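TICKET #2291
ISSUE: user wants both folds in one file
ATTACHMENT 1:
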Amino acid sequence: MRLILEGKINKTYVQSLCMMFFHGEKFPEIEKNPRGAVFVRATEQNGGILAECEFTYLDKTAKTSAFCVGEDGDSYERTSKCAVGKAVYQAGRELTGKEIPWGILTGIRPSKVGAQLLSSFSYEKARDILINKYLLSEKKAELVLSVAKNETKILSSYGDDTCSLYVSIPFCPTRCEYCSFISYATPKLFQLIPSYLEKLCSELKEKAEIIKKTGKKLVTIYIGGGTPTTLDVEQLKILLEAIVGSFDLTHLEEFTVEAGRPDTITKEKLDVLKEYGVRRVSVNPQALNDEVLLAIGRHHTVADFYNAYEIVSAEQFDSVNTDLIVGLSRDTYESFKSTIDKICALDPQNVTVHAFSVKKSARILENDSQIYEKQDTSAVLSMEYAYERLISSGYEPYYMYRQKNTVCDLENVGYTKIGKECRYNVLMMSDSHTVFSCGAGATTKLVKKIDGKEAISRIFSPKYPYEYLQDNQSKEKEILAFFEK
């Protein structure tokens, strides 16, 4: 798709808006035969900004315009985005007939906008702005504000002197069709695990010393992947011993292991997790339908999930999470509705509902290049049912984020029983908390305040395990220098 922009217009924002209507679309600088073209002009007029849009896709064209006047405190950029967003949205809606529930609100963290609104306005006024200015549906506006309230409450409990730790185990028993994580599932790569653990344990010790030097208090730990329980019992002991033996856990409030795949969970592994102080685990079926599980490459059955969940429940962890995905291949509204009902019957402390997102590195694109075109409106009904069913079952939405190219432009939401939220999830998504990370594909996020505003720096670990094993550069000086400035 070709973009032609005139005026002070955020190019990335226009691309994001277009992709809400045309999933998987790309925007190369030079394209000989584009399927579509978007012309947008923004000009200052009468104290506001007028945006004009001409949107062509295949053999259809829509011409629209929108005028916005900045409210108190609105920057030029925010006013421009409002006008441009409405013009492009109206054109996209006219071309496709789609009503996007998120309106012109793009970005990973819609709840951040909700929190900003609630800090300045009443709930009713904030809701009105989301619906009428950002064009959100009523249900999405209520979701944003509910999450914003819960996130704000959690974040207010932590000061600049706290931090979290993420540990990456990028290995899985098999790779799911939709997966884009840096995870590996071949015998050859499994041979790297001993060396990977040795290197990881060394890095954990280094990070522990860095945290000590910064004077920060470690409040949450999250071991993710991949599937950490791909490791065997002895390997788990090595990893957990390195964590418990290296870090000061005096202030630790939460310790999570993403057990994830039911086919990797055993009582022996869970006993090890309990022994070393893990308090929260995930058991992720994604769907409770064997036909769907087979279609997405999950090498376990619904019965396997129930067996794993029974084992986990017997261990009596403080919190158990289950991950589900809306919009999977062969899933329908009725089958997803059944999944939610069955999960609610189990009554886990957390339920995370993801929207199916197609990534360019996902294997599913190799088998179905038209997957972007198969946007199933039953996914919208499924997400709405999940919200209503979980709320009526005593859960609250406490964190959320959005991704590109999700089915029907839907969101990812974490639900919790009161007092059982995963604090790491909220802290990790915020711009106010430092997260030290170890392992391949992990990102360390450093945060400090300068003149009342957050300054953020990210340090990326080598992407692949074999690159990680070859990397011998210490990040200590870079991290300490950030906090000393």
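ATTACHMENT 2:
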Amino acid sequence: MKHLKDYLQHLTFERGLSALTCKNYARDIALLESLVVQAGLDIDSLATIQSAQIRRFISTLNSRGLSGKSIARALSAWRGFYAYLIHHQGFTQNPVMGLRAPKTAKSLPQALSVDQAVRFVEIAGDGILEQRDHAILELFYSSGLRLAELVNLDLDMLDFADGTVTVTGKGNKTRIVPIGSHAINAIQIWLQQRALIAIDEPYAKALFVTQQGRRITPRAVQYRMKGWAIKQGVNSNIHPHILRHSFASHVLQSSQDLRAVQEMLGHANISSTQIYTHLDFQHLATIYDKAHPRAKK
């Protein structure tokens, strides 16, 4: 699509968005391109597209079974693309302004129980991969990091004296997050193993590396977690974000400090953090159903 390459460079170098975020933007704008082509419209004439046509695109996506959340994300990408075209390419209108995706029921994020989380992250083994994966899982659960944040960690981002890690999150924003003692211990053991690996020069500062000396990829972390879930007997659909959800839920249950959890998670808006209050209520409701004599059927 015309101007897309320039727009993605704008997102990367001027707005500081991550490679994964830019990839998602590109995918959603490619979706717009496919809808324009299917409608028999000229793909090089985006300036002529009207809001009525965007509404039809929304109906098409809804009929395909896309969730309201997915459609809303696509609309956000299209809206941002048109805003760029207005500012940089002389377009005069944004046909996506004021349009919303159909609402869908909100689903609560999945979280492990405290016992499940502890059992999952307590990996045993003296091998390089076992020690590395143990450090990764402990850090995920200890500090509530996103997958992209964890794989991009460098050695100089750790401060063992203060028990913190400096994280670069969404929008290239940095925050300082506490690290628990179990995670610190696991990382220090991993660092002893890491010193035995011949690391490629471009990845000399990377905290988590492969046996070949390269920075570990998000896909590799996902794959390893799936394998450990089976080995550790955690019967759940395990993915990296589940430990972030578990971290937030368990800290909130214990502290009731929503603002502190927001800061540690790096949420720009507290409404993103408030969903964990529903998880907390769900936990309390389960206890009530099991314990209260008048709750039993």
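RESOLUTION: both attachments delivered.
EXTRA DETAIL ON ATTACHMENT 2: The CA atoms of residues 132 and 284 lie 35 Å apart.
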